[in-house]
UniProtKB/TrEMBL annotation:
GO terms for molecular function: calcium ion binding. Belongs to the CCDC47 family. This is PAT complex subunit CCDC47. It is a single-pass type I membrane protein. It comes from Parthenolecanium corni. The keyword Iron does not apply. One of its GO terms (cellular component) is rough endoplasmic reticulum membrane. Residues 424-447 have a biased composition (Basic and acidic residues). The keyword Methyltransferase does not apply. Keywords: Membrane, Signal, Transmembrane, Transmembrane helix. It holds the Pfam family CCDC47. It is found in: Rough endoplasmic reticulum membrane.
């Protein structure tokens, strides 16, 4: 499917460039024809002006040759032929030249048509490539947006009855006080959320559908170089009476390593990662558990069969009573962390070329499995030894936190005290009174000597 989209985009861009080139050629041909038509009219105008000038010159010549007054006495009759003047070359000087120029002027001037090269310059190709890129980008935006929307609609329609059976309120977006109309909340073109509440074993459930950024062409190209897929995340908020105190997680190896480094509860209570082979799971999974009996109870026959069948779709299953999110950049926090009891599940959505409805129908058993695990968490209770171990771990963590914060407070108090002494010393040294400076130094020396003397307790003994 991805290769088809890229091929179609390249073909569309090529056809756009070819069509633009043909349009440009037609435009240039029409421009040449227009210029040739107007050239004919210009030639006619030049001929008319030239003939008018010739007539004016001939009339002027006749007027100059005609005598101003006639004298009969001076007239001489010659016996020569009266047409001999036509043979005089001086009489018709310049006549042949003017007649030749007149005949030549009657001929239409030759028009030379400059043929432009068929190839367009480089900047035209750049502009057409940019226009084609913009067209392809917006075409991909519409296509990606539509595909993500189809996946959301298919998921909701497939699991609508299951959600209505488990929750009394489905699709609460925080803006209404009554039952919503079962619609997903759109946070962006690739992120949709759904909040459900009104069920036993949990305070509420948040569903996040995180799709690939198909509406972004650059993200689509980057996805070819990375192994990413669409995902669905479930977050259940649990109450204190809904689960015991323990931390448990099962995830593929790459996710398990990432979670143990980033999440506070897993890094503190479950530093050891066990292979899934010990629990009859595929070898790609790692199990992290604070108490072993939790893992033994969680992996029953139904769960093991689901992990073996959907091993490529299960991203993680995380149960924790000390969930606080990712680690803070501050290694020594002065305030205690806020803990929540959470049940987190993540699945991948397969991209196997099937329709959205077929994909969601294939994943529907995993939705039933999520509520099956939720009921199991509600029913499971630790043994006496398990509760004692969990309490010791949490007590040790609180003591370590108090010790760390106590040291941090002492260091902060010492820093403030030194800063106060430094400012007071600068103030005394800036004064010109040497006696005052000497008294201040003696006073500070006595304070330091007093701090170095160990404190002794005095015991009073009553006499008999």
């Amino acid at each position: 499917m991805k290769i088809t989209v890229i091929t179609a985009s390249i073909v569309l861009g090529f056809l756009f460039i070819v069509s633009a080139n043909n349009v440009y050629k037609d435009f240039m041909k029409e421009d040449d024809l227009k210029r040739n038509e107007f050239a004919d009219f210009d030639a006619f105008d030049e001929d008319d002006d030239f003939e008018t000038d010739i007539k004016l010159e001939e009339e002027k010549t006749e007027q100059d040759e005609q005598p101003s007054s006639f004298n009969a006495e001076d007239a001489v009759v010659e016996d020569a032929d009266e047409f001999d003047h036509f043979e005089d070359e001086d009489e018709f000087e310049g006549y042949e030249q003017s007649s030749e120029s007149k005949s030549s002027s009657k001929k239409s001037p030759e028009i030379s048509i400059v043929q432009l090269p068929e190839q367009l310059s480089f900047h035209y190709y750049v502009e057409m490539a940019l226009i084609a890129g913009i067209v392809i980008y917006f075409a991909n935006f519409i296509r990606g947006k539509q595909k993500n929307s189809n996946l959301v609609i298919a998921w909701f329609n497939t699991n609508k009855s299951l959600l209505n059976d488990n929750f009394s309120l489905v699709g609460d977006d925080g803006k209404v006080t009554t039952i919503s109309s079962n619609t997903m909340k759109k946070d962006s073109e690739h992120l949709y959320t759904l909040w459900c509440s009104g069920r036993t074993c949990c305070e509420g459930m948040l569903v996040e559908l995180q799709f690939l950024k198909r509406q972004d062409l650059f993200s689509v190209l980057a996805n070819y170089c990375s192994d990413v897929s669409d995902q669905i995340h479930f977050k259940f908020a649990l109450a204190k009476e809904d689960m015991d105190s323990y931390v448990f997680c099962v995830a593929p190896k790459k996710n398990a390593v990432k979670f143990s480094k980033e999440l506070v509860d897993l890094g503190t209570f479950c530093p050891e990662r066990k292979s899934g082979d010990k629990f009859e799971l595929p070898s790609i999974f790692n199990v992290m558990t604070e108490i072993n009996e939790v893992a033994m109870s969680f992996f029953d026959g139904k769960t093991v069969a689901a992990f073996n069948r959907y091993s490529d779709l299960i991203e993680y299953v995380h149960i924790s009573d000390r969930y606080s999110g990712p680690k803070s950049p501050d290694d020594n926090p002065t305030k205690p962390l806020e803990y929540k009891r959470m049940f987190l599940v993540g699945f991948s959505i397969p991209d196997n070329g099937k329709t959205a409805e077929e994909i969601m129908e294939y994943m529907h058993p995993l939705m039933n499995l999520v509520f099956y695990w939720l009921e199991k968490i509600k029913r499971f209770r630790l043994s006496k030894e398990g509760k004692m171990k969990a309490d010791r771990n949490r007590t040790r963590l609180e003591e370590a936190f108090l010790k760390t914060t106590h040291l941090a407070r002492n260091e902060a108090a010492a820093a403030r005290r030194e800063e106060k002494i430094r400012k007071e010393k600068e103030r005394i040294l800036n004064e010109d009174d040497p006696d005052k400076q000497r008294r201040w130094e003696e006073k500070e020396m006595k304070k330091q000597m007093k701090r170095k003397i160990p404190k002794m307790k005095q015991l009073k003994v009553k006499s008999l």
